[in-house]
Specification:
- This protein has 262 residues and is an all-alpha fold.
- The chain contains ten helices and no strands.
- Helix 2 packs parallel to helix 5, helix 3 runs parallel beside helix 6 and helix 7 packs across helix 8.
- The longest helix has 34 residues.
- It is globular.
């Protein structure tokens, strides 16, 4: 069975499940809520900077709990459909099964994050009437949010199958708090490159350094700082994603369906 068939099969498994509800509804509801909020918060001073910061901060802080829920639901679905027998004895190799589920999660995240960002940009232009919208920087923010969260998909997929949905959601809840405190406040200014749950928040905020309002406020060129902050997050995020993904691959190949969370 080809990888595309595996991916298609994994998507069909989510039919009539909460997974599809989350994937389809969240990227529509979220920008609507943010547009409503900023329509009541019109402040000509740094308005676009505040919209950018608020939109990506809430999005990236929420990702740990959303990812933990999606991966947990996937594992729970496989358990209930035959105590993981489809995984252990099915025609699909465990490697394809693992990468199929991981790829489906990442593709869903790509679609959701960029759809939410596109809708937000449309709302800013035609509802909030923001002038000179920084489309490129918002799209950069969407991409960096995705890059920073990749490790969470690998990590929570492994946790969900090894220890269950409850453990995944519990760790996701802790990650939510860590990302809010370390990623979104000055508390984490010096330690965030070492905290995976802070990478999404910090990376998503980096493009703000290229906004004209921010440059004028600091009275200096911030391109060097922009590159430095990118490297602080992208390098550890990429390396750790590869390592955790390989760890998950090895673990799935040796897994015998044991319920280590019972």
């Amino acid at each position: 069975m080809s990888f595309l068939h595996v991916l298609s099969s994994e998507w069909l498994k989510t039919r009539r499940t909460t997974i599809r509800l989350i994937v389809f509804v969240t990227p529509i509801i979220y920008p609507i809520f943010m547009l409503w909020y900023f329509s009541r918060y019109k402040d000509p001073s740094f308005w676009q900077v505040k919209i950018y910061g608020g939109f990506f901060e809430v999005l990236s802080v929420s990702l740990p709990i959303v990812i933990s829920l999606l991966t947990g639901l996937m594992a729970y679905q496989e358990e209930k459909s035959g105590s993981f027998m489809n995984v252990l004895t099915g025609p699909v190799s465990r490697a394809k099964f693992y990468f199929g589920k991981l790829s489906l999660l990442i593709f869903a995240a790509i679609a959701d994050i960029f759809l939410a960002t596109f809708l937000m940009l449309l709302g800013m232009r035609y509802i909030l009437n923001v002038e000179n919208v920084h489309y490129d920087l918002f799209l950069q923010g969407a991409l960096l949010s995705l890059v920073g969260s990749l490790i969470l998909f690998s990590l929570h997929l492994l946790i969900s199958f090894a220890f269950g949905m409850g453990a995944s959601i519990a760790i996701g809840g802790g990650g939510f708090l860590v990302s809010a405190i370390i990623g979104a406040t000055v508390v984490g200014d010096h330690i965030w490159p070492y905290i995976p749950w802070a990478w999404t928040v910090r990376l998503s905020q980096v493009p703000m350094l290229l906004m004209l309002k921010v440059k004028h406020a600091f009275g200096m060129e911030l391109s060097d700082l922009y590159v430095q902050e990118l490297m602080k997050g992208i390098i550890p995020a990429s390396i750790c994603f590869i390592l955790v993904t390989l760890l998950g691959f090895v673990w799935f190949n040796r897994w015998e369906g044991g319920k280590s969370y019972e």
